[in-house]
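hey can u check if this looks right to u? its 162 residues, i copy pasted from the old doc so theres a chance i mangled smth
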Amino acid sequence: MTQITLTINGQPRTIEAPPLKRLLDVLREDLHLTGAKEGCGEGECGSCSVLLNGELVNSCLVPILQAEGAHITTIEGIASNEKLHPIQQCFLEQGGAQCGICTPGMILATHHLLEKYPQPNLLQIQEGLAGNLCRCTGYTRIFQAVQQASKTPGTNSVPSPI
């Protein structure tokens, strides 16, 4: 067991875990943050995506030891006081979320994309979401949600922890 100190959704945390335990498993099993989903377990689908020091990563591929001192944002960390983040609201309004397996990863990928390209064109959206697979929507509604989010104030903000 190794003691790991990190910040999750703005909250400093210290946990004990085997050093090679996956970040995804620590989030879901130890911290009960179940927004990140295990889709493939191989880093191919993006369902487990989180922001690690501002970069989009597949948490199923990150050993917890690699997260020492890191700042991690999960889907639970972007909403504020039970109010949906503007990106989440756009996904809801456009029907970009169906079964929910890919949705947290898609929303965090959108957040990451909009920080780089606040007004992305369709090609940038496609490339920005390329690491996230969806088997329900056919992507059209997801792309529409991203386009709507790019026009919505507050999409690049993450709430401050209380």
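The chain has two domains: 2-77, 86-150.
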